[in-house]
Amino acid sequence: MKFELGLEGLIITSQAFIYTYMISGIVALHLTEQFGVEFNGTFGTSIDKDDKLTLEDDYSIKTQIIRISSMVGGNLLWTPIYGKYQLSSGRLIYFDTYLSGGMSNTGVEYQFDHCNIDKNSEYQLKSDYVASYPTFSVGIGQRFFVSKKSSFRWALKSHIFSTNSKDGACTDNPNIAETTTQQPNSTVHFGYSRFF
User: Fold this and answer.
1) Helices marked H in 50-108 — which ranges?
2) How big, in percent rounded to 5, are the helix, strand and coil portions of the chain?
3) Burial of 94 per CB tally in 10 Å (0-12, 13-18, 19+)
4) How sure is the predictor about 40, in pLDDT bands with cuts at 50, 70 and 90?
5) Residues with Cβ < 8 Å from 175, sequence gap 6 or more?
């Protein structure tokens, strides 16, 4: 029955044309030695890679990007592995390995800078906005305990959600075909947490 408060930085590693950097706040309740629940709120921003700029500047190819702006949700935690490592000084570093799985809500920022709309069209270019999608996530991570009340942590997670093609369409034309596409995202997390 311990509370854990933490802060993480994370990077989405599965995006081809942008870098996405995010910060996550964590609140967890460890019900037993092995099981707990964790809630997190994650927010960040994206930066275009050189590849995207090269395609646009040199070849006039404009790419449509799925930009993740937020992830808010909860996970169940299972910690089946505990261990310790002895430094040359004799000090012991304790660690655990945990698995996580849960649901969240992913905010996708749609920008329509890739669109070219005919001035005579009856449909206007959409304004930038954020759409939300239910997301399933699984992950594995470790905590390395600096003391009984603090730890450094890292994790690898996979987030899967489905987007609707109409959400990213340049206009509100009702004749646009509606399709659903799965979007898997992989993230790498590094952070610090305190126990109370």
Assistant:
1) 50-59
2) 5, 65, 30
3) middle
4) very high
5) none
- Digit-coded pLDDT (tens) for 121-156: 888 889 999 999 999 999 999 999 999 999 999 999
- Report d(CA 89, CA 37) in Å as an integer: 35
Q: Supply the pTM of this predicted model.
A: 0.88
Token digits for 137?
Answer: 């996530």
CA distance 102 to 39: 10
Q: CA distances (Å), 6 to each of 27, 88, 96, 100, 150, in order?
A: 7, 29, 16, 16, 9
Q: What is the mean pLDDT of residues 107-119?
A: 87
| Burial of 131: CB neighbours in 10 Å, binned 0-12, 13-18, 19+ | middle
Which amino acid appears at position 102 of this protein? Answer: G
The whole-angstrom separation of Cα 82 and Cα 66 is 38
| pLDDT band at residue 161 under the 50/70/90 scheme | very high
Q: What are the CA-CA distances from residue 49 to residues 44, 52, 63 (Å)?
A: 16, 6, 12
Tokens for 168, please give them: 């990213």
Q: Which two tokens stand for residue 134?
A: 């239910």
Pairing of β 150-164 and β 2-12: unpaired
